[in-house]
Amino acid sequence: MACFSKKGFAATRMEDIARSAKIAKGTVYLYFENKEAVFKALARSSAGARLQAIQEHIAQHKGSAADLLRLMISNIGEFASTSESVILPRLLLAEAGNFPDLVKFWRQELIDRGLGILQSIIRRGIESGEFRDLPPEHVARLCFAPMLLIVIWRTTFAKFDKAPYDYEGLIETHLQVLLRGISVGGDA
Amino acid sequence: MACFSKKGFAATRMEDIARSAKIAKGTVYLYFENKEAVFKALARSSAGARLQAIQEHIAQHKGSAADLLRLMISNIGEFASTSESVILPRLLLAEAGNFPDLVKFWRQELIDRGLGILQSIIRRGIESGEFRDLPPEHVARLCFAPMLLIVIWRTTFAKFDKAPYDYEGLIETHLQVLLRGISVGGDA
DNA sequence: CAACTAAATGACTGTTGGGTCATTTAAGTG
DNA sequence: CACTTAAATGACCCAACAGTCATTTAGTTG
Q1: Mean confidence (pLDDT) of chain A
Q2: For burial by CB atoms within 10 Å, which of A134, B21, B42, B181 has the most?
Q3: Which of helix, strand or coil describes residue B183?
Q4: CA A95/CA A4 separation, integer angstroms
Q5: Which nucleotides of C are covered by protein (CB under 7 A)?
Q6: Which residues make beta-bridge pairs with B183?
């Protein structure tokens, strides 16, 4: 992951990978068919389990839809702004053109499922009268968009920041604006 | 642009570029030092002029901050969801690791300036009492985040859509949620 | 310890593709 | 048309690197 995320797929040499793993180049080929297989194995390493857990957690949640949404966004937000693993989605984004099957995999297993979860929360909020009647498929993406921005910012532009950017503050503001924006009451 | 955006920098051969331009490989080297120079020339082609124009337009705008914000977001949104040029930012994102100086250029010339414009609108709205007192640097990014999502969606995931996604609807919803979320009044 | 098996190595090979330049083609000039 | 200059070409060269495999090293068993 370190190698690929630093230079991209094409510019990473098998020797780089091997040295990074403290083994010889030939050894890599005992475990992987070729360079592409190394990359794919890496890219499939799954956040799927985590999503599964979230999905179940939500089904049995009793609080308001707003609370649930707040919870989810905080969670994803924390991941996006602190985890080292964000270079993985970043990497996939960068190499998307050369690995269409991986893109399809990620789209189905993570994006569609993730958006589905968000949508179901929003739909629930609308039905219960908490949220205004807005298109859930759009609102779900609005919930997620700032996370994507954080991932891209951290992995691409952060190195040129004079002062470290306050990701927590962004997420906090996002929650305030979003919840006020979709709630029916005069205040959120 | 067609070549690079299809396969990325490394996987694009000079012959591809040449054939695409209906000239011979050697001819490319009459106009560009090497492959990197071709890429950089492409990546520098500037939306800077457009930004300049926007900046001036805003200085003399008389309407409410909300109207101004709506205008800007609609504009950027239309660009993000219809222009073919989005493959350019997409490309830069993908190749960021290999061209740090280009990233710095884009960050300074486009991102910082663009965010600056948004921030100034928001600050104006806060001072005039239209908007709530939220951190402008965060709100500016919230304004922009869905555009980024659109760009990435279109250039990476759209090909797997069963039905074409309604980008206009997303932008419309974004405006509704955002303006209601940051306005002081009970309604936006 | 001898005999055997499994794992790891890295020198080597073949291919790919960036970059060069001798040659050809086209344009300009008196 | 003869001659000069500029532009374009693509066969060729060579460095880089993915992938191979004969050899070495480490581990296991009786």
Answers
A1: 93
A2: B181
A3: strand
A4: 10
A5: 7-11, 17-22
A6: B131
pLDDT tens track for B133-168: 999 999 999 999 999 999 999 999 999 999 999 999
Query: Per residue in A137-176, pLDDT tens?
Result: 999 999 999 999 999 999 999 999 999 999 999 999 999 9
Mean pLDDT of A50-59: 85
CB atoms within 10 A of CB A123: 16
Which one of A138, A149, A152 would you mutate to disrupt binding with B, by most B Cβ within 10 Å of its Cβ? Answer: A138
Q: Distance (Å, rounded) from C-alpha B37 to C-alpha B80?
A: 27
Give the whole-angstrom CA distance, residue A58 versus residue B25. Answer: 58
Contact A56, A119 (CB under 8 A): no
- Mean per-residue pLDDT for B94-108? 92
Give the model confidence (pLDDT) of B119-133 as tens digits.
999 999 999 999 999
Task: State residue A15 phi and psi, 5-degree precision.
Answer: -65, -35
- If one counts every other C-beta atom within 10 angstroms of the C-beta of residue B113, the result is 17
| Dist. CA A48–CA A56, nearest whole Å | 13
- Cα–Cα distance for residue pair A56/A185, rounded to 1 Å: 29
Task: List pLDDT tens digits, range B64-93.
Answer: 999 999 999 999 999 999 999 899 999 999
Residue B111 burial (C-beta neighbours within 10 Å; 0-12, 13-18, 19+): middle
Q: CA–CA separation, A106 vs A124, rounded Å? A: 26
Q: Over the range A73-102, which residues count as b (16 or more CB within 10 Å of their CB) and which as e?
A: beebbebbbeeeebbbbbbbbbbbbbbeeb
Q: Which positions on strand D lie below 7 Å from a protein C-beta?
A: 7-11, 17-22
CB pair distance less than 8 Å for A174 and B142: yes
Contact A104 B160 (CB under 8 A): yes
Alpha-carbon distance B111 to B73, whole Å? 15
Q: What is the amino acid identity at position B141? A: R
3-state secondary structure (DSSP) of residue B131: strand
Residues A148 and B113: beta-carbon distance below 8 Å: no
Asked if residue A179 has pLDDT above 90, the reply is: yes
A81's tokens:
């702004």
